[in-house]
Design brief:
Radius of gyration: 14 Å
Oligomer: single chain
Order of helices and strands: HHEEHHHH
Distance between the termini: 33 Å
Number of helices: 6
Shape: globular
Structural class: mainly alpha
Largest sheet: 2 strands, antiparallel
Length: about 90
């Protein structure tokens, strides 16, 4: 997560890598320990990783609707990662 914090939107594939260790895609199985670790470090680096959360709604809209596609890709990857961290394994 430190690398994500240092490079933010310039390297959205770091988030995809974290997503891969949080959930086994082929089996669609979330890994609880990895989910917990990613969330722990996400919260530790939240100010630099997810700075958009603390901005006003107008600023968030402007940022996401702007011409910088790297920022949009970064936040899409971040939402995907957080969704993977929130998944639970179905035992049925």
């Amino acid at each position: 997560m430190q690398l994500v914090a240092e490079h933010t939107s310039k390297m959205p594939h770091f988030l995809d890598l974290l997503d891969a260790i949080v959930r086994i895609e082929y089996l669609n199985v979330p890994l609880k320990k990895n989910q917990a670790d990613v969330m722990k470090y996400f919260l530790q680096y939240r100010d630099s990783v997810a700075y958009i959360i603390d901005q006003s709604p107008e600023d968030r809209k402007r940022l996401l609707r702007g011409s910088d596609s790297e920022i949009r890709e970064y936040y899409i990857a971040l939402v995907d990662l957080l969704a993977s961290c929130a998944e639970v394994r179905r035992t049925c």
